[in-house]
Recover the amino acids of this structure.
DNA sequence: AGGGGAGTCATACGATTGTCCAAAATTGGC
DNA sequence: GCCAATTTTGGACAATCGTATGACTCCCCT
């Protein structure tokens, strides 16, 4: 197993991840990734047979990235309510969210459009499922029933997605902060049911 | 002024509108619009100098379309609260929302990505501004202060966007219906402040 | 030390992209 | 029914897209 090989593969995935986020998947060409990495285009096909394979690797990378962030929320406190609070405040700590929106939401919206063949929606539900199940776990730990916990998790994700979308459309940092506080306040009222 | 000219121009805009919604702006080619309309590609450039000009016309068309829908909400009842309820239930009546998401939200997410030159974000804020100001008017008519009305309008739009996004990601009609009812319930608690 | 696989690189392919143009066809005013 | 303006048409354009290939270099293993 080549050690340098995985290094280049990782560089490709990292550059593609950033470019897919900033410019979108369809608007990112192999030349763009080539320019960003310094690697010739022909080299990509040693690691990935097709562009969609790169997308798969990027999605996998984002799953890993969000998984680490959830771990950080877990280690912040042992209180499930505090963990959810930390989760809600997470978009506030990203500088790029206001410019390019949510990495999951915008990519899902893009891949939700009709392609020629593959229905890529399956990919992004994986990332959303990660967050969804984690939220369900927190709500269940707070004594909520499983069915109700799933409803609350969906509501929470929907509210965060909507807030980030509108904040990025209007480039409105103040709204992002205020709406995040409102979500946290809503969480508080929901817990003491 | 040619009468047939405007007919063809309208056909182009209608086909582009549908294709931009179903397949996305960047993924829609001139050939696609040509196939959908039966008009040769060369004819497009008599009415539009560039592809972005077609996008402008499509956005203008969507503004008109949403404006008519708001008028329908206005004529449904004279009660501002009932009008807002009708507005919230609007995504429920669209069959395609579950498949392709919100026509405004998804296009905004796509155009919010970094292009080479033009910052097209200005276009979509126009459509969101239409809904935003209309909601503000309804809240003000209910006796809410202007500043608070704008906050409520942003909250309402954000919640609807988030619900539609997650519902389309999971293709979950039941969630779309339940979450819409929750938004309407939230509206009720907000009004009697 | 040299054979072989892992990894790199330049180049090229056919298809498609947005753009443009110069005729042909159509139209309306007189 | 003629002429000028408007509209239509089909093809050509340079560029770029994702894909593919084959020769090249490097390094490890026996």
């Amino acid at each position: 197993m080549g050690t340098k090989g995985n290094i280049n593969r990782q560089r490709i995935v990292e550059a593609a991840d950033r470019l897919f986020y900033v410019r979108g998947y369809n608007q990112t060409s192999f030349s763009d990734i080539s320019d960003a990495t310094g690697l010739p285009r022909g080299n990509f096909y040693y690691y990935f047979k097709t562009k969609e394979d790169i997308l798969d690797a990027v999605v996998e990378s984002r799953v890993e990235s969000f998984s680490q962030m959830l771990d950080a929320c877990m280690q912040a406190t042992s209180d499930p309510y505090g963990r959810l609070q930390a989760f809600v405040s997470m978009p506030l700590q990203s500088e790029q969210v206001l410019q390019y929106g949510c990495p999951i939401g915008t990519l899902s919206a893009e891949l939700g459009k009709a392609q020629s063949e593959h229905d890529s929606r399956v990919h992004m539900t994986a990332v959303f499922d990660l967050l969804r199940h984690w939220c369900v776990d927190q709500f269940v730990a707070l004594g909520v029933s499983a069915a109700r916990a799933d409803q609350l998790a969906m509501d929470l994700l929907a509210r965060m997605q909507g807030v980030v979308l509108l904040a990025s459309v209007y480039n409105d940092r103040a709204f992002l902060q205020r709406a995040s506080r409102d979500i946290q306040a809503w969480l508080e009222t929901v817990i003491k049911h």
In short: The first helix of chain B runs from residue 3 to 22. Residues 1-2, 4-5, 8, 39-43, 46 of chain B lie near DNA strand D (CB under 10 Å from a C1'). Chain B has two domains: 1-49, 51-191. The mean pLDDT of chain B is 93.
